[in-house]
Write a structure and sequence with these properties.
Blueprint (H helix, E strand, L loop, with lengths): L2 E7 L6 E7 L23 E2 L12 E9 L2 H5 L6 E2 L3 E2 L6 E2 L9 E11 L2 E2 L6 E5 L11 E3 L17 E8 L4 E11 L1 E6 L2 E2 L15 E8 L8 E9 L21 E10 L4 E5 L5 E3 L4 E5 L3 E5 L18 E2 L1 E3 L5 E4 L5 E7 L3 E5 L2 E18 L6 E7 L1 E2 L5 E2 L9 E5 L6 E3 L6 E9 L10 E8 L5 E5 L2 H16 L22 H10 L3 H14 L26 H13 L2 H22 L36 H21 L6 H19 E2 L3 E2 L4 H9 L8 H15 L8 H4 L2 H7 L3 H9 L6 H6 L30 H10 L2 E2 L6 E4 L9 E8 L2 E10 L2 E8 L4 E7 L7 E2 L2 E2 L7 E6 L2 E6 L2 E8 L1
Organism: Sphingobacterium phlebotomi
InterPro entries: 6-hairpin_glycosidase_sf, 6hp_glycosidase-like_sf, Alpha_rhamnosid, Bac_rhamnosid6H, Bac_rhamnosid_C, Bac_rhamnosid_N, Ig-like_fold, Rhamnosid_concanavalin
EC number: 3.2.1.40
Length: about 900
């Protein structure tokens, strides 16, 4: 049986994928690259493919990969760079390139044929990637910029005007291929002959520029089709020129904006030319972008526009010669994670006149900016102020922005309709106040633009409970809003930092919604590079703020997110790359903070942002209260010892495993000796303390049932069916309750609408997730209305326990499908696009019947737990499963029948 193959793309380095459809005839093939294939700077990227087939139980048995230096050779089935030959293997998600050494600035072409137990495919369509600049020497020129202030800058206010650079070039031959490599810091926009190159915004990705600098790559062949051309670059500040500089002991400042770029051209006659940045470029700061600041916004004076500045013939006589400047210091690296872009446009749901101004409501809290159309007299100033909510009188509530001005200003040039949006800032908002707008404000003149890292939404979830569905929607908006090349905590106030403590459970849940593997792989590298020589890891990475407080819960996210990536994507290279740094940090924490009784004494934050007992008790009070707890730090260290024991095996460091396991066994005894109370609880008997002891396996086996009762008692009796966990406890609460047989209580927490709960946020107008459970009454100093940290493990619970989509082996090779049946929940319809392909689980219960539609991707299998009285009551496609040779019945347990399914689509019906 023949199969059809298509190239798609997925994660980490070069995780391209191929899809094969088993069917009698083969249709035309197509190439669908979902990740940017330009600028791969790894010598052995890994290749991946997805296989789809009409038949069931399809398993790959072998593959044949060809990698060639030209499409012509590939078309002739010549793999001059690598011909794997027919390789017996079922691996389809992580085959490392093992061919000839790759050279800088070359394009590589590949395709694959797969062999399965149901037949082989034809060759896939071809895909390609461009090898980036592999060596420092490849750049071979200098950085340019202006290292100093100009009259257009406001040093005291921290405002720096944008830097404009240009250079005219001549092309005397026919261009076969042209590639631009650019590092523009802090942010850049590249133009050729007045046209912006690419649709990315706020590029490149944020890093600690003394450690590493990301470069972007563009195919500009079609733009160099004449003799004369002009290269133009605008540089914004980003995080390079620090947003705030009044606390140099806290905030890193890297200097003034700068750039290095080269354009490599191959002509049709085979000759090559490279155009570099040098001091023949001209630059100015006297352009329309008066200031650009991530916290404060952008000021744009259209009267100062440099008309046709990036086109041939522009008079740049008044521009200064570009200066050679010091390089940033970090290694140059291709940016594998996608840049940000405008991902969605929103129209206002209302525009209301208010005190001579307009208040625009987009109906949704999100991050990005406004694209405005306006017409008026020259010099008219339009001011846009952003906020997440309104005061009672309908004016903007901005107290929770702290010192962020969150304001854009546009000065009209006059003479016709003008359209403008900022380049080098973004805001977190739902509402915008417009002041000074000439004429009538209408919805088509103020388009909200949602901006986040370009990535696919790979998860979907709906159920019979509308509240669950809306929480899922709110979570999507909150997660997307806080993807800003790093996982920022919030997009609106003067913070926007990648706090490690916000993400351990959240990142896991996010991966069910978004194809974020490249994003989080990049962040793990930010964390590794922020590590001090002695092993210390900061609370914020990249370490734009110098916060090295030494605690377990925040830096521990480093290990937990790496574990998530391995489990969800099968990317062992992530573990291999970070294992030494993780091991060093574990040793560092033990050496400095383990006391003589085996307890880790250092914890900086405790169960951060635990809810006040009542909504009134927290009214007007700041949540910025640290409650360090050695039980939490010790429990986390124990858990991470177990994680490291697994990592040691995965990464070929098995000699370390015994040491980790022995330390964990001793710590368990020390932990129980110090923190266990004979009344069957831990520490001070808080919900979080007991949850950690249960979920991490610290409680002795014969005490588990009692501890489970205590956890339930706290929630049901003391909390009146509500949670009382802060950031730490919420990471584990839903899974713990389900594991102890109380998924019904987890469901109660998920569907509460009274304080404290996710539903309470919705009842009080939230369209994302709040930073605080009492976000409507807490002091505004620390009260973001668009955070993800309080999601905890909620989304993990949605997909793994309500839908029944859980990876048993790494990367969903084996899927555990065991949805919880909870009174009041009548159906769930969910899907997740894993590295093997789409997994779907759509179930419906009616009285004593259970209907379940399931899709398993090729090369994967599922352990399916069907609610059923007996095996003979189960039917698939209308026929008893006992008569279906494609379905393997394993046995029965606890009112369910366990069957094993191979790939394919199934419709199951049972009575229970």
């Amino acid at each position: 049986m023949k199969s059809k193959v298509k190239i798609t793309g997925l994660i980490v380095w070069l995780f391209l994928s191929v899809t094969a459809f088993a069917q009698p005839s083969v249709d035309a093939l197509r190439c669908e690259l979902l990740t940017n294939p330009l600028g791969i700077d790894k010598m052995n990227p890994r290749l991946s493919w997805q296989i789809q087939a009409d038949a069931r139980n399809v398993v790959q048995t072998a593959y044949h990969i060809l990698v060639a230096s030209s499409p012509e050779k590939l078309a002739q089935n010549v793999g001059d760079l690598w011909d794997s030959g027919k390789t017996e293997s079922d691996n389809s998600i992580a085959v490392f390139f093992d061919g000839k050494a790759l050279k800088s600035d070359t394009e590589v072409f590949w395709k694959v044929k797969v062999y399965t137990n149901k037949g082989e495919s034809d060759w896939s369509a071809s895909a390609s990637w461009r090898v980036g600049l592999l060596y420092y020497k490849d750049w071979n020129r200098r950085w340019i910029g202006f290292d100093g202030y100009f009259d257009s800058d406001d040093k005291e206010a921290g405002y720096l005007s944008a830097r404009y650079f240009r250079k005219e070039i001549s092309i005397t031959k026919e261009v076969q291929e042209a590639t631009a490599y650019i590092m523009g810091l802090g942010l850049y926009e590249l133009y050729i002959d007045g046209h912006k190159v690419g649709d990315q915004v706020l590029a490149p990705g944020l890093t600690d520029y003394t450690k590493n600098v990301k470069y972007n790559v563009f195919d500009i062949t079609e733009l160099l089709n004449g003799e004369k051309h002009t290269l133009g670059v605008i540089l914004g500040n980003g995080r390079y020129y620090a947003i705030r500089q009044e606390k140099p002991y806290k905030v890193k400042n890297f200097g003034f904006p700068k750039m290095q770029m080269q354009i490599r051209i191959t002509y049709t006659d085979g000759s090559r030319q490279t155009i570099h940045t040098d001091d023949t470029w001209k630059g100015t700061t006297n352009g329309p972008i008066i200031s650009n600041n991530e916290y404060d916004g952008e000021i744009y004076d259209a009267r100062k526009e440099l008309k046709d500045w990036a086109k041939v013939g522009y008079d740049d006589a008044t521009w200064k010669r570009a200066e050679y400047v010091q390089e940033p210091g970090g290694n140059y690296e291709a940016q594998i994670n996608n840049n940000m872009k405008v991902m969605q446009d929103l129209k206002p749901v209302s525009i209301t006149p208010k005190y001579g101004k307009y208040i625009i409501d987009y109906g949704q809290n999100f991050s990005g900016w406004v694209k405005m159309r306006v017409q008026g007299e020259q010099g008219t100033k339009v001011t846009l102020r952003f906020a997440e909510s309104l005061n009672e009188d309908g004016t903007l509530f901005r107290d929770n922005l702290r010192a962020a001005k969150a304001t854009d200003v546009y000065v009209l040039k006059g003479g016709g309709v003008e359209e403008w949006e900022p380049r080098f800032t973004y805001h977190g908002f739902r509402y915008v106040e417009i002041e000074g707008y000439p004429g009538e404000a209408t919805v088509n003149k103020f388009i909200g633009r949602l901006v986040y890292d370009e990535m696919e939404t790979v998860g979907a979830f709906t159920s019979s409970n509308a509240l669950l569905n809306q929480i899922h929607t709110n979570a999507w908006w909150g997660i997307a809003s806080n993807y800003k090349s790093i996982p920022v905590d919030c997009p609106q106030r003067n913070e926007r930092q990648a706090w490690l403590g916000d993400r351990p459970g959240s990142a896991y849940g996010e991966n069910f919604l978004f194809d974020n593997a490249n994003f989080y792989s990049k962040w793990l590298e930010d964390i590794r590079l922020s590590q001090k020589e002695d092993g210390a890891i900061p609370d914020v990475a990249p370490a734009f703020w110098r916060y090295y407080s030494d605690n377990m819960t925040w830096p521990g996210t480093y290990l937990i997110v790496a574990d998530m990536l391995y489990q969800q994507t099968g990317d062992v290279r992530v573990l291999e790359q970070h294992y030494p740094a993780m091991k060093k940090w574990m040793q560092y924490m033990q050496a400095l903070y383990m006391d003589d009784e085996g307890i880790i004494t250092k914890d900086s934050y405790g169960d951060w942002c635990a809810p006040p007992a009542t909504i009134e008790e927290g009214r007007g009070k700041s949540a910025d209260v640290k409650r360090p707890n050695p039980l939490i730090s010790t429990a986390y260290y124990y858990h991470l010892l177990q994680v490291m024991a697994r990592f040691s095996e995965y990464t070929g460091n098995s000699q370390d495993r015994v040491g980790f396991e022995n330390r964990a066994a001793k710590m368990k005894k020390d932990f129980n000796k110090r923190f266990y109370n004979q009344a069957s609880y831990y520490g001070k008997n808080t919900l979080t303390e007991n949850l950690l002891a249960m979920y991490f396996g610290l409680v002795e086996e014969d005490e588990k049932e009692k501890l489970g009762h205590r956890i339930v008692e706290i929630i049901e009796k003391e909390n009146n069916d509500h949670l009382s966990t802060g950031l730490v406890g919420t990471q584990w609460i839903m899974r713990t309750l389900t594991d102890i047989g109380r998924a019904d209580l987890a469901y109660k927490l998920a569907t509460n609408t009274t304080y404290p709960s996710w539903g309470y946020m919705l009842e009080n107008g939230a369209t994302t997730i709040w930073e605080l459970w009492n976000g409507n009454t807490a002091h505004p100093r620390m009260n973001s209305q668009n955070h993800v940290m309080m999601l905890g493990d909620l989304l993990v619970w949605y997909y793994e326990h309500l839908a029944g989509i859980k990876s048993k082996d790494n990367a969903f090779r084996t899927i555990v499908m065991k949805p919880e049946l909870i009174n009041g929940l009548e159906h769930v319809d969910a899907s997740h696009k894993s590295v093997y392909g789409i997994i779907t689980s759509s179930w419906k219960r009616k009285k004593d019947t259970f209907e379940w539609d399931i899709t398993i991707p090729v090369n994967a299998n599922a352990q399916v737990y069907i609610p059923a009285k007996e095996i003979k009551s189960i039917r698939e496609q209308g026929k008893p499963i006992v008569e279906n040779k494609e379905i393997k019945v394993i046995g029965q347990e606890n009112g369910r029948v366990l069957i094993e399914l191979g790939s394919g689509t199934y419709r199951l019906l049972s009575t229970f």
